[in-house]
Amino acid sequence: MDENTSDEPTDRPAAPTEQEVFDILSNRRRRYALYALLNDDTTTIGSLAERIAAWENDCTVDEVTSTERKRVYTALQQSHLPKLERTGLVSFDRETGRVHPTDTVDEMDIYLEVVSEEQLSWDQYYLGLSAVAVGIVVAIWLGLPPFRALSPLLWMTFVVGLFAVSAAIHNYRSANLDAASEPPEVSRRS
């Protein structure tokens, strides 16, 4: 065994495993905490508790009662933030109450995006768009009307344009999701 190897924990834990990710995200308060930290560089546990309490109680931060805030604060301090710290997603200074996201939090963004049952996910949308594109190519190849009325180059320009516009909208919506002030699951309740 190498003399330099030790059983001491490293400064930075490895990225969470898939099982740890699902365990972390199984709790709404941890999801809310991660969502808040995606948009903030550093915050305090008090500020985080107020924000989460407001989301949970469907009110503004100013309307949160001290009981609601304390309930969330205690759970964050005793359970959720230590768990997020153990998995390497945040660094939590218990003395100052400062909570700082690690670079690993950015990887959680894909798990935090919520697609409701009545919405198409982007992968389903692009799959459908690809099927339409294949249909257009087959119709052009077979010379079916109205596809033979325009040149194949115009049709291909149309298809490429559809993908370009879709990608631009996807990018815009993803950027707006990142900048949103509340988690998607809270936004859907409104």
Summarize it.
The chain has helices spanning 18-25, 28-39, 45-56, 66-86, 109-112, 122-142, 152-179, 184-187, and strands spanning 43-44, 90-93, 98-101.
Structural overview:
With 190 residues, the protein is mainly alpha-helical. It folds into two domains: 18-112, Arc Repressor Mutant, subunit A (Orthogonal Bundle), CATH 1.10.10; 122-187. The protein is built from eight helices and three strands. It has helices at 18-25, 28-39, 45-56, 66-86, 109-112, 122-142, 152-179, 184-187; strands spanning 43-44, 90-93, 98-101. Strand 2 (90-93) and strand 3 (98-101) form a beta hairpin. Helix 3 packs across helix 4 (66-86). The radius of gyration is 23 Å and the shape is elongated. The model is unreliable at 1-10 (pLDDT under 50). The chain crosses the membrane at residues 125-144, 150-169. Pfam families: DUF7344.
Roughly how many Å is the radius of gyration? 23 Å
Low-confidence stretches: 1-10
Total number of helices: 8
The CATH C-level class name of the largest domain: Mainly Alpha
Measured as a percent range, the helix fraction is 55-70%
CATH fold-level assignment of the largest domain: Arc Repressor Mutant, subunit A
Mean model confidence by pLDDT: 81
Main sheet record: 3 strands, antiparallel
